[in-house]
Amino acid sequence: MENLIIVILFFIITYLFVFFYVRKFLFYILISHILYIAIVLYITYGLENKFLDIDDYLPYFNSFVIYFNKGDLLSFVKPHAGIYTFSYPGWLYLIDGSESFVYIRLINTCISVLIIIPLSGIYKKIYSVDMKIWQILLILLWLPFTIRLSGELGRTPISILSIILSIDLLLSDKKSLKIFGVLVAIYAIALRIPHIVLFLPFVYFYIINSVNKIKQKQRAIVYPIVLVVFIFAFIAMVYVYYNYAGESRSFQSLEDVAEYSQARGYGNSAYLTSVEITSPLSLIYYIPLHALYFNYSPMIWDSFSNIKLLPSSLFSLFSFFLLLVFILRFKKTSINTSKFKILVLSFILTIVAFGVVTKNAGSAERWRMPLTLLSICLLSHTIRRDYGELSKL
Q1: pLDDT tens column, 114-130
Q2: Model pTM?
Q3: Which residues, other chains included, contact 173 with Cβ-Cβ below 8 Å and sequence gap of 6+?
Q4: Which of 91, 120, 133, 364 is most buried when burial is the number of CB atoms within 10 A of its CB?
């Protein structure tokens, strides 16, 4: 009963936010949310289906209960799944054990619905217009997100929301919102530490803008100092996070990166398993190829040998089509160039960094989802004027 009450409260809070920020899309958001709920309930209670993420998160939930009963939660709280379980909604497991899974999933569907608020904010900051209804539906009904991730037991929904929300706040012109955006970004990084690369361009452009205000003669001294401080601060932050998280992985050489990457080439959705880092020169083709696969796998040809990959591969193909159209029409598009540059650099850095150590389409699809939804949101702008009546929606 306690879980049900908490779920109802979150539904109420969710739709208060929706009504306050994007009320004109309320009906379409509700329809999408009903679909999320239906999928969760079907897979939860369907005899032929089951969620595969329980094994990943159950150890953390059980560990959380042990530390909670010992009264030593501070020892449990660490980045990654630890911070997710502690902060929300993993702690619901305390109430009814495994019976709480469906409630956690239902609350995560609420979190998934809320992504449309910061996405609409980012869209307006870039294009100075509101999104159309069909764009809202395109995002919320993006198949890999709708079917696989919107009601996941784990941290994926809250990771997506926190990343997109932090980007929206960091792009704001108000300093108070930027500060709040930094706090949300720290939480997003704690949920999945490698996402730190996504926020580096924001720091970089902030530093550049600050340095540009300095007199010309002083810049020759300030630029190198700022660059060194930036690099050392980044290394120190990663070091602290990984040590605090108790991570055993270490990337101290190119061989370490190659070994970790090859170890991730497993399962039916593995890709480029024969492409390896053999020398620094091999990075010339390894990096762009893996970045491409990370962002668009499973490729359409992958579905020829595994038909289950076809829906996701079609959506990836459509995503690539949107990128091509956007590039061809970029010069004719009215855009906030300075803010758009930050997002482009963030996008490139992320797919390169994640792509280097990823060889599995399932993992890639989950890890790239915040940027996928953001790119679909922004790239769809260039096809608005092509569809007559549709563009009026």
Answers
A1: 999 999 999 999 999 99
A2: 0.89
A3: none
A4: 364
